[in-house]
Structures are given as C-alpha cells and as structure tokens.
Amino acid sequence: MDRQQLLYGLALLFVPGVGPVMGRRLVSYVGGVREIFSQKAMSLVKIPGVGEQLARNIANGKALSRAEEELQFIEENDLGVIFYLDEEYPRIMRDIDDAPLMLFVKGEFNFNGHDRFVGIVGTRKPSQYGKNACSSLVRDLAEQKYDPVIVSGLAYGIDSQAHLAALESGLKTIAVLGHGLDMIYPASNRGLAQDIIDSGAALITEYPSHTKVEKSMFVRRNRIIAALCQATVIVESSIKGGAMLTAKYASSYARKVMAFPGRATDESFSGCNWLIKSGKAHMIENSKDLTDLLGWKAQAAQRKIEFTPPPLDQSEQTVVDLLKEVEKMHVDELAIRAEMPMSQLLVILFNLEMKKVVDQLPGNFYALRRM
C-alpha cells in the first residue's frame, strides 16, 4: 500500500465498532478502504450492519487523526504493515472471516515464501517432560529437513521453549503478540524477541501501538496462531489453560489439532488428555505423528502448472491474469484489483466457469481450474 492508502487502512482500525468482519464488509460495499472515509453518514447507514452511531464514528474524522500518529510510529520504528488485501498477507489466512484486517510486523519475513507452519503452545509452567517433548519435536522436524516455521505466542513456558528450540535448530519462528509493538510482554523475553528478529523471522500483532493491554487481547491473539498454521500442537495444558482456546480456534478453522498425552493424575495435562479422549485432537508422541497427519512424508515438490486458457476477451483475460498470481482470490478482492463493478465481474466469472477456465470455491473464492 502507498502511504495514503496505508493511512486509511490504519484509520479503519481506530473506528469504534469496526472489527475484521465489519471492516471487510465496508471495503466490499464501497470498493476500497479510502472510499470508506469519503462517504457521508447517510450513505454508510445503507450498508447492512452499519447503524447511525457507527456511521458517525467513520464520518467524524477522529480515526484519521489517530491513524496519522500510528503511521508516524510505524515509520520511526521501521515496522512493516500488511493489509488483508495486500499480496504479502498470509495466503493461508485469507479465507478466515475474522482474521486481522492488518498485521504489524517487526522483522523481515515473507509469509508466502513458506508453505509449512506449525503452532506450538502450552502452559506457562511446564513440567520437564513437557519441555523435553517440545524441544524434541522441533529438533526432529529440523533434522528431518521438513523446515516448518514454528509459530507461538512468546509467553513463558512452552511458548518460549518452542521459540528457543526453533532458533537452536535453525528454523524460522514467528512470535504472535497480544499487544502492540511498542512493548514486549513478558519483559524478560525481550532478548528472545530480538533473537527472533535477528534470525530473519518476525514478531507480528494485529494491535497498533499504545493499545491498552487487556486479557482478552491475548485470547484473540490465539486465533492468529491457529489461523496461520496447518496444525497446532498442544504440548501441555490444563483443562482451563489458554492453549485450549488455541485448539478451539484451530478446530473451527478446519486446521489439525494435536496434543501430547500425560498421566491421568497430572493436572497440567488434563486439557491435553481431554482433547484426545473427546476426539478433538490427534495424539502426538513424536514428529512422525505430525508429518504423517499432514502428509508431509509423501509430499513431492510441486510443479508449476502452466495454464493455457481458451480464447478470452480483454475483460476475461484481466481476471485470469489476476488469478494466475495466487492460489485463490476472494470475489471482493478480485473486484477491487480488476477495477470492475461487482455486477460486471460476476458475469465474467460465470462465463469463465462455463469455459472451464475458473472454479468457484467455498466462501466466494475463485481459482484457475487446474488442468
């Protein structure tokens, strides 16, 4: 995004009442993030779900003022910012309705340059068994050359163990924070956070700077870990542990959930045992369990597919060229990038489906048909 577009994208975050779902709806209805703030309140209330108060919150300009402050902070601290319509936005998260509208990034990392992400989470007070299980899993994945990106939350305990094991094994590791990038919590993990950045990976968050930290923010952080990963491993957790929420998010996103078993008498493993017993998680004892579940052992290097469509008119070719760049694209994003009214785009997509050039996927995504 250019600086002006970034400003409006940031402003959307500061409008009271606008979350990921409403933000996407607004962009879809008006055709772009900048256009949202050029609308009058009387026009905005015509959008489903936008009441008079929300319309006033958008139109009064206060969000833009706060966005200017945040943009200055971003520039002064050399942060990256990825809007959900940007090509750099993690593709694996694009089909998640409540995925963040924007990610703030500290460090240099190409999310779409990697195709294997594993979340590892657990209690802040792990047993030695839990620590060993975590480290062994990460180390074995590295030694077997699967090279997944290890994702966790930079908390005490299993999170820190997962990050440290990844760094020691030469794997990339992403820390998802439950607060803005103006701080590191816990403060004792500042050195670990810097080591992650120095290794060529990153810290990420959906929260702008100087956001008042609340417990619910760490709960919401868990959904990003789940959404970013093909599988989430619960190493050690009680039945009330925060890692159980990560497992719940992962399951709701149709991701794989795995849990290490513990002794029936160990409270710190009661959550893991319950997930396995209730069929909500696959039991994991070693790295082979994970790689077999994800099919990595049999996974061959993917060949680039050359696509030769039948004769197309100029508008159809524009849509096909955009779809060539990605695995799939949401119809709202396609309309914005093609600079077409939705009514025209839907006709083109229907014609391309009839020509067996594109396929419609669940959730209003479209992709080139694989030949």
Task: Describe this structure as you would to a colleague.
The structure is a single chain. This protein has helices at residues 3-13, 20-30, 33-36, 41-44, 52-59, 62-76, 128-143, 158-169, 190-198, 215-228, 243-252, 270-277, 287-294, 314-324, 331-338, 342-354, and strands spanning 80-83, 102-106, 117-121, 149-152, 173-176, 202-205, 231-234, 256-259, 282-283, 329-330, 358-361, 365-368. The chain is of the alpha/beta class. It folds into three domains: 3-76, Orthogonal Bundle (DNA polymerase, domain 1), CATH 1.10.150.20; 111-294, Rossmann fold; 314-368, Winged helix-like DNA-binding domain superfamily/Winged helix DNA-binding domain (Arc Repressor Mutant, subunit A). A nine-stranded mixed beta sheet has the order 1-2-6-5-4-3-7-8-9, sandwiched between helices. A three-stranded antiparallel beta sheet has the order 10-12-11. α7 (128-143) links the parallel β3 (117-121) and β4. Mean pLDDT is 91; it is low at 298-307.
